């Protein structure tokens, strides 16, 4: 039975749901302010009717540049914050590391709300909220903190299930957010929208502060604990984690686990970055509404797989974690080939259903890898994973968009065939990882390794 004070899934759901609403609202706000700077308030509502094509293109380009600036302004401080907060979470407090990204979100939304209420405030001041959010850790620290919390409290036998349910919150919250954000924004406007987003974040903060349990006991005062965030020893301990000697098989398993997740992110984020372009082009020629439904379906089926199918397979059939990963990679490979060959919208909508088992891979690889580190190394592991995953996400957009442009004349779906080849690498790495686990001393089955986690390795 799960203790209610250890249930952190609502924290991620509310965080990602409000983040999804914020992304849609922020892009709309920037687009509107950029338009008002280029055209007058009477002509901006007519921008999409084809009367001002050159101005529309210029505004879209400028908005895209601002979005890029916001992404970098969030990412760079988040990476620096994670250097300190990852080791801090292992040594001093799991709960404080959960609270800080929510505080950052509330601060950013408050800044956005003020700017949205006054048309005279330039777009550049939105960067204040973005940077403050990044300094509190942002998405990187939130995910690291939640993975560490779940791994800390969950017996290895049920760890994959809990990680799967946690991952499902990302997909389900995004599904709902994408479905309602546009309608809410159209009805309420930017300022009221930010007011509602603030409410969700404040509810999340109250839940985390008053319901979620602190896992690390200490006799230090809150002030001393907070000052410990900025200790240089935190960075030193992260470096020690990455370089310390381990048994050969343990080091190999850790490296392959991190490698598989990194390549998985490269593949999935790369596909995501060009799917909209692929769907809008002939012969599929999907509308904006259809594309929205496609992404909602994709997120829903991944969430359904993790919250319903994965627990059933683990509890009823005790399916091996890495076997589930291999099924997921096979489904991804088949789905990518189907997508590359798709000639109509119906085939495109079948692909997310074919790819359903891909949802297994995120939870299973993280679960298996986490069993090869000590309990005081969990946040460091997920911090390191978060760094590589965000780096892969940046590379994915550059590589896949560039490849899509270069190979479009050869075959419109060629980039998805490349994705299938990358998926084959993930399959190979998973098989090697499984073999290394079998060779580990005293490690017989992936459901019987509680003792290994707390051993010296």
From TrEMBL:
GO terms for cellular component: membrane. It is found in: Membrane. It is a multi-pass membrane protein. SUPFAM superfamilies: MFS general substrate transporter (SSF103473). It comes from the Eukaryota. PROSITE patterns: MFS. One of its GO terms (molecular function) is transmembrane transporter activity. Keywords: Membrane, Transmembrane, Transmembrane helix. InterPro entries: MFS, MFS_dom, MFS_trans_sf. This is Proton-coupled folate transporter-like. It comes from Octopus sinensis (East Asian common octopus). The lineage of its organism: Eukaryota, Metazoa, Spiralia, Lophotrochozoa, Mollusca.
